[in-house]
Amino acid sequence: MTLSVNKPKLDNLAGDIWKSAERLRGKFKAYEYQNVILPIIIIRRLECVLVDARRQFEKEPKAFGNKRNRMTDAHRDWIEDRYRNGWRKGYNDECVKIFDRNDFAYHKVGVVFWQFDEHDQPAVITEPYEKAFTAANIGKELKFHDSELTFRISLRCGKTEKTETLQLKPGNNVAAKLRSVMKGCDEVVAVEWTHRHYIQDDEYIPYGEDIEAFLNREIARPIIRWEERPQPGYEILPNKYFYRYQPPRPADELLAEFRKLEKQAEKMLKGLAQ
């Protein structure tokens, strides 16, 4: 189906695009415009059209401060023409591509998984316990780690202080064990605990891909839990969509250039020695 073009609306749309470009400049002054790069412009409809306009500029004919390049009306017409015609069925231009919005989307997933050491054994760390030292909090830690926990507790008992060790395993009665350790003491001075180490990280997963399968494949470690953020993220990577393979220069050509440079360097050194 051919997209009908309403010239007044198209002109308004083109005007809005360039106004957006002006807003993107932020606080740039007029003579700093050359520092603002607008290589890709996106028009959102039901789909997205991307136009690779990174080469649409020319060298400044005269020096103007730090300004080196400029966009002319011909460059703007080139961009506008591709937005006007790029939606049409059968349109073919390597600088124009149409995408669905989900092509730019990804799942943002918070993941918690166990850390292992260099011997592929569960990593264990000892650190101060920052939370309130209560049976409820300790019970949550025990349920989360599902492994043995050790607490070293500095207690004030009247005018004296002492250190007690509380070792807990899954299924233990936390409240009873805590009461036994705290018996005769009225204040917890400090707590240090030893537990399995875990990592909290964010994974960015291509939209539509099975999240659990991706995590099992990419992390390859026992996952404690994962949670997807309610809103997908979006990222546009121009180099990904407009990448063009450039074959490397032949080895013989590179070697010949290196030898030439070597000879030039030797000649310069001889000149310095004379």
Please tell me about this protein's structure.
With 274 residues, the protein is α+β, with helices and mostly antiparallel strands. The protein contains seven helices and 13 strands. Among the domains are: 7-95, no CATH class; 124-196. Strands 6, 11, 12 and 13 form a four-stranded antiparallel sheet that branches. A four-stranded antiparallel sheet has the order 7-10-8-9, covered by helices on one side. A three-stranded antiparallel sheet has the order 1-2-5, covered by helices on one side. Residues 36-46 have low confidence and may be disordered.
Provide a quick synopsis of the model.
The chain has 274 residues and is an alpha+beta fold.
Identify the notable features of this structure and list them briefly.
274 residues, alpha+beta, four-stranded antiparallel β-sheet, 7 helices, 13 strands
The overall strand count is 13
Main sheet, how many strands, which sense, barrel?
4 strands, antiparallel
Instruction: Kindly estimate the percentage of residues that lie in beta strands according to DSSP.
Output: 25-35%
**Structural class from helices and strands?**
alpha+beta
Mean pLDDT, as a whole number? 82
Specify Rg, calculated over alpha carbons. Answer: 32 Å
Secondary-structure element pattern, one letter each: HEEEEHEEEHEEHEEHEEHH
Question: Could you give the distance between the termini?
Answer: 77 Å
* Tertiary shape: elongated
Poorly predicted runs: 36-46
Count of alpha and pi helical runs? 7
Helix content: 25-40%
